[in-house]
Structure formats: C-alpha cells, structure tokens
C-alpha cells in the first residue's frame, strides 16, 4: 500500500481577489507563504519517500516548504497544473458572468460537460493530471509515503479518479489553501479499493488565523 498526501498550494493574491488563475504562474502572497510553513509543520513528522509537484510556483514553493530539511528530491510535472481557464484567466466571477452569461454557473453545475472558452474541460484536466500522478505512483511497487502538491481543480479530479467517482461530482470536495488530503492507495484494478482517510484538513491554517 502507498499513502498519498495530496496538498493544495497556499494563497495567492489572485485567490484573495477571486481571480481565475488556472495555468497563470501567480506566486504565493505573504499569507500563502505562512500557510505553506504552517502546513510543513503540520506534516513535519511524516517521512516522505518521494515528492511530486506541479511546475507552477505556488505549488512548487508549497512543496519546498513542506519538504523542509528532508533530503528528498521534488519531481516537477507540468501535467499537474490547474485547469486551463483559457479566456477566463485573470478575470473575476462578475467579469466572466458579464461576458458569458450563465456559463460559469453551468461549469459548476455540470463540470463533466462544460469546456472553458479556449481552455480545458475537467475531463481533459483529469486525463493529463492523472497520467502524471499514476506514472509517479507506479515508479516502483514499494510501500511508500508520497507527497503530491498541486491545485484545487486538479486535486478534485484526481480524487474522483482514485475513488472511482464520476467527474460530474468533482465539486463535492472542498479544497482550501494548503488543504491536506490523505489517501491509502491499493491500486486501480477492478477489485482494488483506495481509501480517502483525510479530506481538506486546514486545521493548521485555522490555527494560524487564531480561529481554532
């Protein structure tokens, strides 16, 4: 069995403003850097055998913060990037609604059928992201503890794949900044069962904000 820790990146200014950042390389802001440090402290007792990260800096810096002083290389894979929001990149919800009335609501209601204008569908996101994750997981047959850092939409599609849940339900999973998810991975065969053991744990962020 492999234990997968799948972590979303820390906060960016675009997160805070409500801009759709997708594949745009927006760095962590001051709060996001603090969240990444807090996430690293929350996971400091975990011995990671290998680490995989999206190549976008907000995910990579989060991975580096969690890694800390461990002598573990970080494998970088651009296939783990966030959904390509195409024409929606850098726009606010209100701006998208003005230019494409009703389409953004439709994306949240039916993510399995909507493709962002000049961007990706969630199925395309899942296909590329899962190819990278599965390749990483399958590099050996050892029992391992793996860290994967990427993005909210990406994580939702990965969880759907791991748990054999239709992608139409991907918005059923909350994913806060530096949310920690843990999956016990047994394989993708017909009779294998992967177990979601922890979902969207942001206790370290709540402690940082004094809300816990």
Q: Order of strands side by side in the largest beta sheet?
A: 3-2-4-1-5-6
Q: What is the first-to-last residue Cα distance?
A: 33 Å
Number of helices, where a helix is a run of at least 4 consecutive DSSP H or I residues? 8
| Arithmetic mean of pLDDT | 95
Low-confidence stretches: none
What is the CA-atom radius of gyration, in angstroms?
A: 17 Å
Fraction of residues in β-strands: 15-25%
Helix content: 25-40%
Q: Which class of secondary structure composition applies to the elements?
A: alpha/beta
- What's the order of the H and E elements? EHHEHEHHHEHEEH
Any idea what the shape is?
globular
Largest sheet: 6 strands, mixed
Count every beta strand, where a strand is a DSSP E run of 2 or more residues. Answer: 6
Give descriptors for this structure.
single chain, alpha/beta, 212 residues
Overview of this protein structure:
With 212 residues, the protein is α/β, with parallel strands linked by helices. The chain contains eight helices and six strands; from the N terminus they run βααβαβαααβαββα. The chain has helices at residues 13-17, 30-42, 57-67, 93-99, 103-109, 122-137, 152-163, 203-208, and strands at residues 2-8, 50-53, 74-76, 145-150, 180-185, 195-201. It has a six-stranded mixed β-sheet with strand order 3-2-4-1-5-6, with helices on both faces. α3 (57-67) links the parallel β2 and β3.
Short description:
It is built from eight helices and six strands.
Write the layout of secondary structure elements.
Blueprint: E1 2-8, H1 13-17, H2 30-42, E2 50-53, H3 57-67, E3 74-76, H4 93-99, H5 103-109, H6 122-137, E4 145-150, H7 152-163, E5 180-185, E6 195-201, H8 203-208
Parallel strand pairs: 1-4, 2-3, 2-4
Antiparallel strand pairs: 1-5, 5-6
């Amino acid at each position: 069995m492999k234990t997968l820790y799948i972590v979303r990146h820390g906060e960016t200014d675009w997160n805070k403003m409500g801009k759709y950042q997708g594949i745009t390389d927006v760095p962590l802001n001051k709060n996001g850097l603090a969240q990444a440090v807090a996430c690293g402290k929350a996971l400091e007792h975990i011995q990671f055998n290998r680490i995989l990260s999206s190549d976008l800096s907000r995910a990579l810096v989060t991975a580096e913060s969690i890694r800390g002083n461990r002598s573990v290389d970080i494998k970088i894979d651009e296939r783990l990037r966030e959904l390509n929001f195409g024409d929606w990149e850098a726009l606010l919800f209100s701006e998208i609604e003005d230019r494409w009335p009703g389409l953004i609501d439709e994306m949240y209601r039916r993510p399995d059928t909507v493709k962002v204008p000049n961007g990706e569908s969630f199925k395309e996101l899942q296909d590329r992201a899962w190819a990278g994750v599965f390749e990483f997981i399958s590099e050996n047959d050892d029992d391992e503890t793996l860290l994967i850092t990427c993005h909210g939409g990406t994580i939702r599609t990965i969880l759907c794949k791991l748990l054999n849940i239709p992608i139409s339900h991907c918005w059923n999973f909350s994913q806060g900044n530096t949310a920690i998810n843990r999956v016990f991975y047994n394989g993708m065969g017909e009779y294998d069962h992967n177990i979601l053991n922890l979902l969207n744990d942001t206790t370290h962020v709540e402690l940082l904000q004094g809300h816990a």
